[in-house]
Specification:
The chain is mainly α. It has 22 helices and no strands. It has helices at about 5-35, 40-45, 55-70, 70-85, 85-105, 110-115, 115-145, 155-180, 185-190, 195, 200-210, 215-220, 230-255, 255-265, 270-295, 300-320, 330-345, 350-355, 360-375, 380-390, 395-415, 430-439. Helix 1 runs parallel beside helix 5, helix 2 (about 40-45) packs across helix 3 (about 55-70) and helix 16 (about 300-320) packs antiparallel against helix 17 (about 330-345).
Length: about 450
């Protein structure tokens, strides 16, 4: 490999990091905004005359979950296209779809304006978002890890998860800013629309970056043969099991937390958002170091540490938040630590999934594994937690939900090798390896 080739691959790799991660940031910004404004959306779209607030919140989270169940469909549809025609054109398509759907949510009429049509329109746009989000992850991670230098997939993949934290923080920041400068009446009337409308300029910027993206050398150089379908299906199921704890704990601590604090512990909207920002800051701080550490120690050691810590600490953490005599500073440190623990799983996760699939089925395979796990354990988190608390009266449900999911994912994580990840399929999947293979 010549110096010129190395320099070119470095430049292309940096461009891939930006173009691959920016769409993911927008996706999670939107999903975060929806979660943070769940109580307001419930009142505007799911509360007819005489309807209860609890029932409306459950319906809001049902719409939230529905979008997640469209993600596997999007992962299969766009993943197959991405494995056939290339990563770049499909990533351009999914960011366009996400931008249009999210922007339109900010312009929707409410229940008071169009009646029962309002929740159906919102649900339709959420379904479109789910389709595009399903095609986003597989393509973004494929691009970022396929351009990664040897021994740096964990680091490059962790930047995908880092943009999740940035997106959630941006959503929380937008919500907190609006809650500060607007009155409660203004926020509920029209202020909640602004973060969704902001997606339009963000999406146009992401589209411009992706139009300048090169196709990955690994995709260009990959052989046309595909592994047996049975091996791919097994890898998808195993991959989903390995990240289910990450999916459940991540959404419980980073997205569902604001509504939980408001509806179950009586916190104000501003207090709930501050707690969420702190949790996401902790999440952001550990992601990249965890990915880098996994390049040295292996994915298994780092991800297992995160899962076991959630199992051990979830209930004590929630009890700390419920305790009236504990200072806000201590509670802030606690929620920040909860986010940091999730980052230990999120940092190595993308690279781990990428390494499970050969190039020709990577977009589809890792996208499906991620989408299926998130559909069940992330998308349903708010619905399950809210409905279960309503039926049982137990405010410890979020802790049990996260802890049980991580406990179940531990056996799947134990199947990882100590140093490398795979399912008996070896393929050149870094920029330099692909060019050397192509001769």
């Amino acid at each position: 490999m010549t110096f010129i080739h190395r320099k070119r691959n470095t430049r292309h790799g940096r461009r891939a990091l930006v173009a691959g991660s920016v769409g993911n940031l927008i996706e999670w910004y939107e999903f975060g905004v929806y979660g943070y404004f769940a109580t307001i959306i419930a009142a505007r779209f799911f509360t007819p005359e005489g309807g209860s607030e609890a029932e409306a919140l459950v319906k809001t989270y049902a719409s939230f979950a529905l979008a997640f169940f469209f993600r596997p469909v999007g992962a299969a549809l766009f993943g197959r296209l991405g494995d056939r025609v290339g990563r770049r054109p499909v990533l351009v398509l999914v960011i366009t779809l996400m931008t249009v759907a999210t922007t339109l949510i900010g312009a929707l009429p409410t229940y008071a304006q169009v009646g029962a049509l309002a929740p159906w329109l919102l649900t339709f746009l959420r379904a479109l978002q789910g389709l595009s989000a399903g095609g986003e992850f597989g393509g973004a991670v494929s691009v970022m890890t396929e351009f990664a230098p040897p021994g740096r997939r964990g680091l490059y993949g962790s930047l995908q998860s880092f943009t999740v934290a940035l997106g959630l923080l941006a959503g929380a920041g937008a919500a907190a800013s609006l809650a500060t400068v607007l009155t409660e009446e203004q926020l509920g009337s029209w202020g909640w629309r602004l973060p969704f409308l902001l997606t339009l300029p963000l999406g146009l910027g992401a589209l411009w970056l992706r139009l300048r993206l090169d196709e990955t050398p690994a995709f260009v150089a990959a052989a046309r043969e595909r592994p047996p379908p049975r091996e791919v299906v097994r890898a998808v199921a195993l991959g989903a099991g390995r990240i289910m704890g990450w999916a459940a704990a991540g959404y419980t601590f980073l997205v569902v937390l604001p509504s939980y604090l408001q509806s179950s512990l009586g916190a104000s909207f501003q207090q709930a958002l501050v707690a969420t920002v702190l949790a996401n800051l902790g999440f952001a701080v550990t992601i990249v170091p965890a990915g880098l550490l996994s390049d040295r120690l292996g994915r298994r050691a780092v991800m297992l540490t995160g899962a076991v810590l959630v199992v051990a600490l979830a209930v004590p953490l929630l009890n700390l938040l419920q305790a009236p005599g504990v200072s806000n500073t201590v509670k802030g440190v606690a929620v920040c630590g909860a986010g940091a623990v999730v980052g230990l799983m999120a940092g190595p996760g993308p690279a781990m999934l990428s390494e499970m699939f050969p190039t020709r089925v990577r977009y589809t395979g890792l996208g499906l594994a991620y989408a299926l796990s998130n559909a069940v354990f992330s998308g349903c988190a708010g619905l399950i937690i809210t409905e279960t608390i309503e039926r049982t009266g137990s405010v410890d449900i979020p802790a049990y939900y996260a802890a049980v999911a991580c406990a179940v994912s531990v056996p799947a994580l134990l199947t990882l090798s100590g140093r490398r990840v795979g399912v008996a399929v070896a393929v050149a999947d870094t920029a330099e390896e692909a060019e050397e293979k192509a001769g």
